[in-house]
Design goal:
177 residues; mainly alpha
Amino acid sequence: MTSVQPIDDPAIPGLPSLSRHATYLAATHGIQPQAVRLYAWNVTISSALWGDFHVLEVTLRNALNDQLVAHTGRPDWWNASLPLHSFETSRINDAIREVTTQKGRAGTPGHIVAELNFGFWVGLLANKYHQRLWVPILQHAFPHIRGSRRDLHRDLERLRRLRNRTAHVRHEVAQFQ
């Protein structure tokens, strides 16, 4: 039994949207086989990064959550009157609604924490939280940090954007499987 290699799969040009495929065609000066290979390479690279992004997201979430729990003394730290902006409060409320819909009364604070996305956690390291959360609480999640909170946030924000780009490639492929 012979298998079709992704770069030889005739369905690949139909996977991304026409505008997305046009990006690959433009990058290869309109050479269709090269555009298909470039798209396949992008999928391969995106897939290779996905596991590392997962570990990064879970590690960041757990480190920040642990500090918030320790500071407030409660697993539902969002109910402890922390100085959160409306955007983050809204994300927490969305997570609570989602967990309540999915799990009902069986939903736990851990389920809610897991429902909060990578962007939420990266956002807690933004400048707007420097005095409110970083100085008193969150800096303790990074005992070996070299550099500033600003550097950490900038690097994590870049990784968040790359993660989202990677997720979009994976989503395009998953639609056709």
